[in-house]
Amino acid sequence: MNRNTYLTLLLTFLSFSLTGQVGEQLEKEIGKIIYYDTDISFRNTPAYLIGVQLGDTSFVYAYGHTSKNQREAPQSDQIFEIGGLTKSFTALLSGILMNEGRMHPDSSINYYLPDQFKNPTANAITVLDLVQHTTGLPRLPIGIGLKEKDPTNPFGHYTKNDLLTYFADVDFQAIKKNYKSYKKNQKKEYKYSHTNYAILEVILELVSDKTYEQLLQKYIFQPCEMTQSGVHDFTTENRNKIVKGHSLGGQPTPPWQMRSFAGSEGIKSSMDDLLKYMKASLKNKTHQLGPVLAHNQQPFVKTDMAKHIFGGNGWHIITNKNYYDVVMHAGSTTGYRSFMGFVSETNTGVVILANSPHSMNGLGLLILKMVNNNWKRTKKGLKTGVQ
Predict the structure, then answer these.
(1) pLDDT at position 386
(2) Which of 13, 120, 299, 321 is most open to solvent, judged by the fewest CB atoms within 10 Å of its CB?
């Protein structure tokens, strides 16, 4: 064995050894958070997958079992519903198509809709209002429950035609008068709404002449090499990897079938794929989707959540005067819950997938805070592992 080969093998061994030590320490710290700082119960949520990004290294930890009747731990290539985290993907698609000139952020929604669905009171409501949750539309359309045939599948019978018919009848002038900030002469007010992204999905399909799923594949999944993600279109192999969800009452719950609202709630994905997506978001200066990813992570709109939480494009931004911004979004469906949060400046991030909608008790932010040394980690701090 020559000297160069020996040195290469030695460095590789040391690298694996150090990574293993960091991984073991990280697992211990996460365990402490789960068991001492949260009220998480594995009786309520059978399985958790936790992914942590530290610099260029990913760590994945499995907790619990995929169901109460099986003793199999969840795997990083298994597929979960991600719920509202879908919105970050839809906002990314919107930015990409805006850059291509397919639509303009300041154009009225009416401009892109068929004549029978144009709303005369919505001329001032723009595409950017949909992206940034400033339309004033409610979280879900009024009357959506009348179309519901199965409470575990709320969008299975609510069509895009139903959605656009609802939109056409909304009185946006009345909404404006009800703004809390109207007396302060503010034109827009943040109001988180699944309806916004359901309408945005329709517009994306109309301007591109592609389905939402085709857009995801072309512009996000393929560039990020995400092979285990989709809405409806899964290979047999991936379909068999979908983890069974569990309702709040603990009953097995099938994945949602979407006839609308896929752009708000509809993506199913794996830990492996979501870590790839988060890495792209962290490395927004070098990734091919970088310009839009970086733009969407900016704090654009004050929210009604807290003074230090702002709305980005498809993200929530937690600002801190003494630290870097935290970019995050969570999601839930009737059988699953998800979380993604990261700090670009320290190249750290956390992804959590669970197969029930029970609360995570802030687990994602607690872990992210821990790996950032109680919000004191610097770029140089990454070299020393977990602090």
Answers:
(1) 45
(2) 321
What average pLDDT score do residues 59-79 get?
89
- Say what the pLDDT of residue 225 is: 96
Distance CA 330, CA 349 (A): 13
Q: What is the mean pLDDT of residues 258-272?
A: 97
pLDDT single digits (tens) 9-20: 444 444 444 467
Q: Which residue has the tokens 């019978």?
A: 157
SS3 75: coil
Integer Cα distance of 66 and 72 in angstroms: 6
Q: Which fold has domain 14-384?
A: Beta-lactamase (3.40.710)
In DSSP terms, 60 is beta-bridged to 51
Tokens standing for residue 179: 């703004």
Q: What are phi and psi of 275, to 5 degrees?
A: -65, -35
Q: Return all residues near 325 (Cβ < 8 A) that are at least 6 apart.
A: 297, 299, 317, 318, 319, 343
Distance of alpha carbon 161 from alpha carbon 125, whole angstroms: 20
Q: Is residue 64 a contact partner of residue 73, using CB atoms and an 8 Å limit?
A: yes
Determine contact, residues 107/234, Cβ cutoff 8 Å.
Answer: no
Q: What are phi and psi of 172, to 5 degrees?
A: -70, -25
CA distance 120 to 170: 9
Q: What is the DSSP letter of 230?
A: B
* 362/355 Cα distance (integer angstroms): 16
Q: Could you report the per-residue pLDDT of 284-300, keeping only the tens digit for each? A: 777 889 899 999 999 99
pLDDT (tens digit per residue) in 84-122: 999 999 999 999 999 999 999 999 999 999 999 999 999
